[in-house]
Amino acid sequence: PQMRQYVDFNDLDTICKLYEQRARGLVKFAANKVEEEVRNGEDLVGALNKVSVHSVRAANAHCHYFVVKNFVDEIKTLELSPGLRSVLMDLARLYALDGLSKNSGEFMEEGLLSGKDVKQCHQLVVELLPKIRPNAVSLVDSYEFSDKILMSVLGRYDGNVYPNLLEWAMKSELNKTDVIPAYEKHIRPLLKRHQMSKL
Amino acid sequence: INPDIQKERDTRTFDYEELAMLLNGGKEEREKRKKIVSIVESDRDYDGPDPSFMSRMDRFEEWMRKSSLLVKKKEKLGELVQDHKDFMFYNLNVTKKRPNVFFDLHYGMFVPTLMGQATDEQRAKWLIPAINHEILGTYAQTEMGHGTFLRGLETTAHYDPETEEFEIHSPTISSIKWWPGTLGKTCNHAIVMAQLYTRGVCHGIHAFMVQIRNMEDHTSMPGITLGDIGPKFGYNENDNGFLKLDHVRVPRDNMLMKHSQVLEDGTYVAAPRKNLTYGTMTMVRSFIVRDAAYALARACTIAIRYSAVRRQSELRPGEPEPQILSYPTQQHKLFPLLATSYAFFFAQLHMVEMYGSVNEAVGKGDYSNMQELHSVSSGLKAFTTWTTNSGIEVCRMSCGGHGYSLASGLPELYTYFTPNCTYEGENTVLMLQNARYLIKCAREGSNGAKSVAYIHQDA
Q1: Best interface-test mutation with B: which of A36, A85, A142, A145 has the largest number of B CBs within 10 A?
Q2: Which of A110, B178, B245, B373 is the most buried (most CB within 10 A)?
Q3: In terms of CA atoms, which chain A residue is nearest residue B50?
Q4: B428, A60 contact by CB (below 8 A)
């Protein structure tokens, strides 16, 4: 409860601290479990195996913390125009808050967030979406993947999806002839038999 | 240009050039990339049928044609393709992220292993011919029965001091090398990982150069059985192969001996560090983090552009159908993934940089950061590939019915990306390796490296 009065979801450093504490908590939990198993007579290999489910959660939280912190640190360090910095900051906040929101159970487990905090977090993610919207297409354009690399009718740079979807479908082997060879072999005899049975 | 997507581009609030330069390695690098793209895309020789409508054999042959063309045409690019990074980008544009049978395993693993583990004499013998494409190589580690657990590999290499040769052998069905790319039908050499025995003692996994095909007529060498492992979930242009060795004898010099050696009389000289043999895998894991970032970025590009031009339903009767990108639920599916692609972009920069500096230090005999690199590359490889794998599927679903068509590009992106979760270390096992390091740091109370120092700080 003391921690929570300092949580400011607008501050990326605070959010990074939450990730750090979640990772520390889960690593220490796994390490303590290993100690416990060893004290109960298990050898280290056996102890690590028994604790492996907790260990994977700990490693995942550690990697998540690494990626969030690295993202925030990079944006702080890079020389950027105010416009771009603000857009990247919004992306970093969205990444970090979405991670809090989707892994809220682990943050709550560590006593870092309350149910009320998590609700606020969900809301902040929703509020960030319209801020990203005006830049969404340009943010993906900036990677500069050519159409030939994407090989996607839906993801074409010019957005002319429907005429190209039709053109693409026309390449299908089945469209080489109007009547497929299987008609004579399988469809026509079936239809004939059906018509004869009606008679 | 579709007016809806143009409108989206007109509303941006940042300097496009500034971000494009940041994401493409700076002004000069971006210019270079643009030139390479333009050269490849204007070269009609690289055109070919749409792979979505091709059989496996046709795909295999078409990508072999493109791969060999790329090698032949590389020289003409002069200064544009100066280093490995440039060549990788050139390759990506020719093969469109599909396998390059003359490049991926050859330059991705065969050449780096020679660079990292061969002595100067061995480099002179194999590295130069490899770079000149006089020999084509692959890296044969995984077996039918064992993959990630390297100590479980069964292939043996017994040293015979009488003849100063190693006898390399697949003792069981499960020990047959299984999965290595381009092994089945393309390569004529392989670096084979096998359990080394000298004087009756096993010294663990070591790397051996084995000629697997005759250089004259490309037939399998005596004692060697080779083949393709059959169709897969994706990557069907590649002849991922199998290799069975029946008491194949190679000279003593064919063991890569930069780090550990076997002397003429069979004396084993151990490497200064046990896991130096696994350097190639650490490198590949670092590059997989980069692939994860770009694969997610590509999926987001497709889904977000399509969401800008697709209109669906009416919010209120009689109103125009909104772009699906305007729906909060669509934004909630895609924008966190867009943000993730940026987070991964910066993570891969860090990872590749870290690999470069640790590798340089190892070359100078400084092994102090190897454990840290191994831990970070294992953890990030697993973390980013899992996220990207599920993220591509979310992008596909976000395109509604059309996402299911191969025309969307997303099914193939998914099937090409998904093996990243299981090759070069199965993800759960890699997470456990990362966790072992974290738990060790926590238990021993040592601060360890910078990335784990926080474990001992006060909450």
Answers
A1: A142
A2: B245
A3: A171
A4: no
